[in-house]
Description:
Layout: H1 2-15, H2 42-45, H3 67-70, H4 74-78, H5 87-102, H6 112-132, H7 137-160, H8 162-172, H9 188-239, H10 248-277
InterPro entries: Ribosomal_uS15, uS15_NS1_RNA-bd_sf, uS15_ribosomal
Subcellular location: Mitochondrion
Family: Belongs to the universal ribosomal protein uS15 family.
Amino acid sequence: MNALAKLKSITPSVSQIVRTYALKSDLKIKWVRPEKIPCYKPEKSGDLQALPKFAGNELMKDYRESKELETANEHVRNLFTLEHNRRREMVENFKEAMVRRVYRHDLDYGSMEAKLGLMTARIRSLQDYMDQFPRQSVVKVQLKELIDKRKRFLRYLRRWDYRRFEYVLEKLDLVYKPYPTHFHWITRKDSLRKLTNIHCEQIKESRLEEYRMQLESQQLDFLEKKLKTLEFIRKEQTECQVPVTVTKEEIQTVRKQYDELKQKRTAMAESLKESEEA
Length: 278
């Protein structure tokens, strides 16, 4: 009986020694799983521009310099425009335009820059096609392989000629997105940890900013007090005929800082008043 009585007396004290842990849910940070973007989309491939829309009255690539079409009938001329022909003719026109952005000479189709221009034109045409027909699995595989090939070419160019690499990215409107060094799954725990660190950094920055503003608000009174103190010390040392430790240059520097800060505060107050009145 005595043992049971001792246990009953101990149990309430044990329940009070339970430790409560702080949880990330207490910070009220909401995590939403990011939307999965296919690798062939422009957001992942790095293409900043889409396939442009050509005007329908443009001639095909092989008939631009034809003298007969210059004087031909309007109905005959329409047969050789992009509007009345296959989509391939428009893509060929776009390929030539992309190559002309980076080519080295008029007949250059084999350099690294020209190859990247051709691949970029082909990629953007396939991306436009996939937007219209997203269930075309064969085209999707071709597009993925072409994007990987362009990444390999860009990685090689970046390693051996960085200036040319930057030039190609600028001319073709590309962003180089290399493969990650190590793969990791997107998990809720890791994402919450990152969001918590970001939240703590924001709190720290906001408090530092408030403390900085508080110190700036006291700066004018501090400089005024410092100026009076230095003048009083110099005056007392001069009257007591002891070595003077405060020079006139120091007092002049503090007075200059005080006047500049006072003028700045006055100008800011006037501008705020004018903006409120407006």
